[in-house]
Amino acid sequence: MKMKLLLFLCSVLWTSADGSAPVQHEDLAISGCSDSDGEDMLALDAEEMWFADFKKGEGVFVLPPFVDPMTFPGGYELAVADQQVCRSNLKVLRSTMEGIPLKKVPPSSLVIYSRDDVELGEKNILICHVSGFFPAPVKVSWTKNGQKVTDGTSINVPFPSKDSIFTQISRLDFIPQLGDIYSCSVEHPALTEPQTRIWDVELDNPQPSVGPAVFCGVGLTIGLLGVAVGTFFLIKGNECS
After folding, report:
1. For residue 133, what is the enclosing H or E element?
2. Quick check: is 223 in a domain?
3. Pick from 44, 65, 97: which residue ends a domain?
4. Residue 234 falls inside a structural domain
5. Which residue range forms the structural domain that includes residue 160?
6. Is the peptide bond before 137 cis (omega within 30 degrees of 0)?
7. Would the pTM of this model clear 0.85, i.e. be above it?
8. Which tens digits make up the pLDDT trace of 11-56?
């Protein structure tokens, strides 16, 4: 995996809805590059809002449908200029760090889950959440029923934390069908082999089972039968006396 330099700026915004108690929000901007790749993104409160797609040559807003449309005039052109500065700094950093071993921390957490509640046959998104690693980035790959999947996959830029480790999220568009098995595998320089997590549609979206209901029904019937038998002998006993 090629070395990547990540430069980021972080500022804190203070806003208040009614002019009384201020609410703290964190506005994050990240610009990163390597010899063959680059990334530029904006986030608010650890949620990605916008990124530069250098392959398509445009800026892309990553916001849920209910959010009002936003614009960022000149954002993509600024991101392209940032890449030139980043690659220049990368050359300087490489010459400065030559011969110094790079600290490597493997991912401490790898979780896979669906964005929305699972409904068979309905479009959804699988999320592979990787955190606690250094340096960035990680390489994420997906499989469906043992076959590698690339269509409908995406990955965001790494999020730095205050303790100098990173978090990165990969997504897979999918339509859940009962019995399908998905996997998310992560590669990192600190790992001797990929870390993998499995997500099973059948296990994560179990179908309603009649087992517990039948069990409770039988138990209730036996309980009522026992009460009836006990009452019968109690009455007989009283008659005999």
Report:
1. strand 124-133
2. no
3. 97
4. no
5. 109-204
6. yes
7. no
8. 445 554 555 666 777 777 888 887 778 888 888 877 788 889 988 8
Amino acid letter for position 66: F
Give dist(CA 88, CA 48) in Å, integer: 26
Residue 89 within any structural domain of the chain: yes
- Those residues with Cβ within 8 angstroms of residue 70's Cβ, 6 or more apart along the chain or in another chain: 49, 50, 61, 63
Q: How far apart are CA 241 and CA 238, in angstroms?
A: 5
Can you tell me whether residue 183 is helix, strand or coil? strand
Within this chain, do residues 157 and 192 fall inside the same structural domain, yes or no? yes
Q: How far is CA 226 from CA 218, 223, 231, in A?
A: 12, 5, 9
**What is the domain count for the chain?**
2
User: What distance in Å separates the CA atoms of residue 146 and residue 135, rounded to the nearest whole number?
Assistant: 29
Instruction: Read off the tokens for 234.
Output: 């109690």
* Positive/negative CA dihedral, 111, 117, 118, 123: negative
